[in-house]
């Protein structure tokens, strides 16, 4: 039976606005409240469990008790006679039968609520009644026995009885005292009737054994309470972990549903937006080039060019969102083949050359000669370099410099490095610019349009190639972006095999 507090959670609702509580403080307050409301200094949820353990121990003890009573009765009969032994046995059996009835009544309640204090007093009363048999046993005297023979027999039997009772009733506070109060009263009375010193010492030993075993029983009771408390804390921890797991599963399920809804939305909207965008781009280009005839108004022509540029920007945005969504969903398939990293970098430079010339930006090229080919997706590698070059051109001021390097890494891999002399990125903003739709303060102030998806796409594509993306930047000193590909993707040139025959 677990005495842990039942967990409270709803499997269908994840509470997101509830302020998290301090678990240790909550547990401490609950323990303190329980001790204050319990008459025994134990939490109320443990009181009933302790009584149940006590009832279970008494049931087993009382069932086997007739056998030791019978054996002690035979021993008593050999010293004093049948009549005295029968009277003692009858008193002992009746006393333990009363204790058994109380135990049976308590166990018959089952899971119904009980008054712990009332039932504790009933159990103490049962022990008191059962202890009258031992008090009668201590009051018996043998006049015709040899010196100390019967006294030694009494001493051994009473010590064993006290020890067994302490073991059985350890979960009931005061059980040992209640059972042997009559015994101590009889022994104290007999010590004052002028008995021999050795008999007085023996009786004093029995009287002293009662408080000693009371302390032992209290120690055992505290151990039982601590064991129950640790068990309850373990059960509560398991319940909390189960609750956290359920909440985590629910949150993951909702996230998966949201991600699925996002994917469906993007798939639908990409089709719905691309169709009219293609028409807008095509018709605006026809009008801007005056293929079907002159416009007749230069302002209209400027408007059409703006429409075409805006449509192209919107189409690029949609393509970037779709690329990032496919990468995040694991649906971006790499068409891997042997590619030349230097050749792809040169091709990408041709795309941005017009922009660099328009802004007066100097391009510095440092390519390692005779680089072996790389096992990669050419389209992805091209997109990586183009995104990095576009960012460098966008944020490099007029008259600045962009340096592109392709070469070996220290581990035998290959890398592409693009460094600019732009305004740089503050160190605390680097995680922002690497997140989806994240833009630094320089980008926000810049007149250049951007979506904040270029670097996240680059980072995702590099990771898909088992590589590493590094962004180094310092304010007013420029930015360097490095795409590193591992040695495992470099195709080593094998020497020609020569026939040794």
TrEMBL record:
<dbReference type="InterPro" id="IPR003594">
    <property type="entry name" value="HATPase_dom"/>
</dbReference>
<keyword id="KW-0902">Two-component regulatory system</keyword>
<keyword id="KW-0597">Phosphoprotein</keyword>
<protein>
    <recommendedName>
        <fullName>histidine kinase</fullName>
        <ecNumber>2.7.13.3</ecNumber>
    </recommendedName>
</protein>
<feature type="domain" description="Histidine kinase">
    <location>
        <begin position="268"/>
        <end position="489"/>
    </location>
</feature>
<dbReference type="InterPro" id="IPR050736">
    <property type="entry name" value="Sensor_HK_Regulatory"/>
</dbReference>
<keyword id="KW-0418">Kinase</keyword>
<feature type="transmembrane region" description="Helical">
    <location>
        <begin position="58"/>
        <end position="79"/>
    </location>
</feature>
<dbReference type="GO" id="GO:0000155">
    <property type="term" value="F:phosphorelay sensor kinase activity"/>
</dbReference>
<keyword id="KW-0808">Transferase</keyword>
<dbReference type="InterPro" id="IPR003661">
    <property type="entry name" value="HisK_dim/P_dom"/>
</dbReference>
<dbReference type="InterPro" id="IPR005467">
    <property type="entry name" value="His_kinase_dom"/>
</dbReference>
<keyword id="KW-0812">Transmembrane</keyword>
<dbReference type="Pfam" id="PF00512">
    <property type="entry name" value="HisKA"/>
</dbReference>
<feature type="transmembrane region" description="Helical">
    <location>
        <begin position="198"/>
        <end position="220"/>
    </location>
</feature>
<feature type="transmembrane region" description="Helical">
    <location>
        <begin position="85"/>
        <end position="102"/>
    </location>
</feature>
<keyword id="KW-0472">Membrane</keyword>
<dbReference type="InterPro" id="IPR036890">
    <property type="entry name" value="HATPase_C_sf"/>
</dbReference>
<dbReference type="InterPro" id="IPR036097">
    <property type="entry name" value="HisK_dim/P_sf"/>
</dbReference>
<dbReference type="Pfam" id="PF02518">
    <property type="entry name" value="HATPase_c"/>
</dbReference>
<keyword id="KW-1133">Transmembrane helix</keyword>
<feature type="transmembrane region" description="Helical">
    <location>
        <begin position="152"/>
        <end position="168"/>
    </location>
</feature>
<dbReference type="InterPro" id="IPR004358">
    <property type="entry name" value="Sig_transdc_His_kin-like_C"/>
</dbReference>
<feature type="transmembrane region" description="Helical">
    <location>
        <begin position="123"/>
        <end position="140"/>
    </location>
</feature>
<feature type="coiled-coil region">
    <location>
        <begin position="220"/>
        <end position="254"/>
    </location>
</feature>
<keyword id="KW-0175">Coiled coil</keyword>
């Amino acid at each position: 039976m677990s005495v842990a507090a039942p967990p409270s959670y709803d499997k269908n609702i994840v509470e997101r606005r509830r302020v998290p509580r301090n678990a240790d403080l909550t547990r401490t307050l609950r323990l303190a409240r329980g001790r204050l409301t319990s008459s025994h200094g134990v939490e109320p949820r443990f009181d009933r469990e302790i009584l149940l353990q006590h009832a279970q121990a008494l049931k087993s003890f009382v069932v086997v008790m007739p056998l030791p009573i019978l054996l002690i009765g035979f021993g008593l009969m050999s010293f004093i006679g049948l009549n005295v032994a029968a009277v003692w046995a009858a008193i002992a059996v009746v006393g333990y039968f009363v204790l058994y009835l109380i135990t049976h009544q308590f166990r018959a309640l089952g899971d119904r609520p009980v008054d712990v204090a009332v039932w504790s007093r009933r159990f103490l009363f049962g022990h008191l009644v059962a202890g009258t048999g031992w008090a009668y046993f201590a009051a018996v005297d043998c006049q015709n026995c040899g010196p100390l023979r019967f006294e030694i027999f009494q001493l051994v039997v009473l010590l064993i009885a006290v020890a067994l009772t302490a073991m059985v009733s350890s979960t009931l506070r005061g059980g040992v005292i209640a059972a042997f109060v009559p015994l101590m009263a009889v022994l104290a009375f007999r010590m004052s009737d002028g008995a021999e010193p050795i008999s007085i010492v023996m009786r004093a030993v029995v009287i002293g054994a009662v408080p000693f075993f009371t302390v032992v029983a209290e120690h055992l009771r505290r151990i039982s309470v601590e064991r129950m408390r640790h068990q309850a804390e373990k059960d509560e921890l398991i319940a909390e972990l189960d609750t956290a797991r359920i909440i985590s599963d629910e949150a993951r399920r909702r996230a998966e549903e949201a991600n699925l809804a996002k994917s469906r939305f993007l798939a639908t909207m990409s089709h719905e937006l691309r169709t009219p965008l293609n028409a807008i781009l095509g018709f605006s280009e026809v009008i801007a080039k005056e293929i079907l005839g002159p416009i007749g108004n230069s302002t209209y022509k400027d408007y059409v060019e703006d429409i075409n540029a805006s449509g192209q920007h919107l189409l690029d945005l949609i393509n970037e969102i779709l690329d990032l969504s496919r990468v995040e969903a694991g649906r971006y398939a790499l068409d891997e083949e042997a590619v030349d990293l230097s050749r792809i970098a040169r091709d990408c430079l041709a795309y941005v050359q017009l922009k660099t010339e328009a802004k007066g930006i100097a391009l510095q090229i440092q390519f390692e000669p005779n680089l072996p080919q790389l096992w990669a997706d050419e389209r992805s590698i091209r997109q990586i370099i183009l995104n990095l070059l576009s960012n460098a051109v966008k944020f490099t001021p007029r008259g600045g410099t962009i340096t592109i390097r392709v070469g070996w890494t220290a581990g035998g891999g290959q890398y592409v490095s693009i460094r600019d002399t732009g305004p740089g990125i503050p160190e605390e903003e680097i995680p922002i610019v690497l997140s989806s739709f994240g833009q630094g303060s320089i980008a926000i102030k810049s007149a250049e349009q951007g979506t904040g998806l270029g670097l996240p796409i680059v980072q995702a594509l590099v990771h898909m190639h088992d590589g590493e993306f590094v962004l180094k930047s310092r304010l007013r000193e420029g930015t360097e972006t490095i795409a590193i590909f591992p040695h495992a993707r470099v195709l080593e040139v094998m020497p020609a095999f020569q026939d040794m025959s």
